Amino acid sequence: LLARVVDLEDHGLRVVGTAGDGPSTVARTRATTPDVLVLDLNLPGLRGDEVCAAIADLPTRILILSASGEERDVLATIKAGASGYLVKSASGEEIRRAVHETAQGQAVFTPGLAGMVLGEFRDMKARSGQPEPEPKGQGSPVPELTERETEILRYVAMGMTAKEIAADLVLSHRTVQNHVQNILGKLHLHNRVELTRFAISRGLDTPG
Prior knowledge:
The chain has 208 residues and is mainly α. It has helices spanning 2-10, 22-32, 48-54, 71-80, 92-103, 113-128, 147-157, 162-169, 173-187, 192-201; strands at 36-39, 61-66, 84-87. It starts with a helix and ends in a 7-residue tail after the last helix.
C-alpha cells in the first residue's frame, strides 16, 4: 500500500502512520486513532477481519483495500466492522474519494459488492427467524428518529447512496449527509454498514 499512501499524502490527506503486519496495525491504530484506517486484507500476523475485530471499540472507520473480491473475504471483514471495501484495481481518485466518504460515515464499495453485502444482511435476518418488531412511540419503528430521518433510514437500508437519496427526495447532497450523521449519532452507530444492518433488522428495507 506504500505507493497509495504517498498518493494520499500528495493530495492533502494527512497520513498519521503505516504498519506492515496485523499486530503492528492494531497497535498503531490504537496509538493514533485515525479517522480512517486503509487496511490490506492479507497482512502477516493477523487477517484483515481479525484486525477489524481487534479495534472494533475505536471510533476509527475502516476501508479495506484488497486484491480479493471473493464473497467470503468481503463479508468476513464487513461483519467484523469494516465500513467499506475496494479492490486494488481502483484508481487513485477512487481511493481518495473513498477515504473522504468513509470519514463521513458512508459505506463505499467496488461496484457489485454493495448488493452482496445488502443481500447477506437480509439473509441473516431471514435465518434468524426474527419477527417484525412492534411499532413503538407514535407509530414509528425507531422512536428516537424524526419522520424525515426514518424516511432516509429506509433509503439507506435499500442500498441507495446519499446522492440517490437526495435526488429522490429533492434535497441537497449535504442535507442528506447531515441527516445520516444525525441518525448515526442518535442510534450510537459508527457507519452506514452498521446503519444498514440496524435498519434491516427493524424491517425498514422497504419503502414506507
